Amino acid sequence: MPDGSMPRSNAATLPDIDSFFEPNHNEIARQRYVSALRKHVLFDKQGDMEQVYKTQVAPAYKKANGHVPRTGVEIEKAMTGQLSYEVYGSMRYVAQEMVWASVQEPVERVLPDMISVAQRAASEQPAGGSLTLDPAMEIPRYVSALDVHLIPGCFHSEFTQNDVAQGAVVAFGGMVFAGAMGWRQGFKGSYGAVGESVAYYLKSKFPDFKPRRILDMGTSSGKNLLPYADIFPEAELFGIDVGAPLLRYGHAKAEAVGIPVHYSQQNAEATNFPDGHFDLIVSSFFFHEVPVKSTRKILAECHRLLAKGGLMAHMELPPRKNCDAYLNFYWDWDTLNNNEPAYSAFRASDPVALCTDSGFSAATGYEITVPNRASFGDANFAKFMKGEMPAPRHGVGGWYIFGAQK
Ligand SMILES: C[S@@+](CC[C@H](N)C(=O)[O-])C[C@H]1O[C@@H](n2cnc3c(N)ncnc32)[C@H](O)[C@@H]1O
Does one domain contain both 398 and 367? Predict the structure, then answer.
């Protein structure tokens, strides 16, 4: 099912929680502006900065040191104070703050309706999923101590009873962030491109693989879990996260579109599922926000939770070892500027070695960049699977994944 499609609906019984989000003319203009600003920074300003690095900074560094910078950290030091880098960084930072600000007011306006439909979803459950919250659960400090990627209130904060605001702000802010604000053209309710691509890759690689249960860790509101319902229709879907507002939002969404998902508020470091409960464990954009010490615990938990033969596929940022020095400088910007302190340490690690350290056999560990299915197209995807076409680089049409098999 290509990204953007949503074949099912329980709209007759439960409205789609997304449908309440109706930004007005000025709000839409602001959201578009923020998306365009981000694009300008990420392409034009980034391009200017790279030019300055290649034509001025690297040659000057070589003259002074006998070699060009060898690491992203060296490039960052050499670029500090360069106008192009300072302009890029400050514009990108401000645009990041504006992403969330641009959706907060329209969310605030319809919050009572969103909360009411989420409560209905929790009591009626027309799709047959479930929502289990644990108000006593301790939020890990790497979530509670800061506003991760500058989202005011981070993932977990609740400002009113049965709050779903963070779920809506993350979901719609994510669309502004990605320049995917097509909700006026029917974007509402589309699936996540990463889940769509990874699920399709797994199905293509292992055509006989029929997971009975699939777990998505750090699922947020399940955007990248929902595509598994189409690609592995026989599987039961489970999503865990520490943020209750995200889970309430995601549960309401899944129930409205008719996909049964069992959401629960749990720390992935130690869950309450029995041993060997899952055949497939996935995650996306998760581990770079988790300190490496906790990543080890989570991967060990994955090992406990997988049945024999079960698979793991985690989409993440590509590690430093796979990128050149300039790309490392580029990717690690978020650690210094975007409230993502664990990001660089994760990228400095070897994700496959982390799997091995956590109990998986080295022989089953893998890493690969898979094409984004929606933009690459199924014909090209088939060529990729046959080794006839490379995947685009991570972040520009490809997604880096790593994992192992139990
Ligand atoms: C960047 S978001 C991931 C988004 C989502 N997977 C997606 O693809 O859109 C990271 C998520 O991990 C959650 N999280 C962080 N630490 C966690 C932990 N120890 N256990 C479960 N969830 C966690 C956060 O609450 C947040 O929702």
Answer: yes
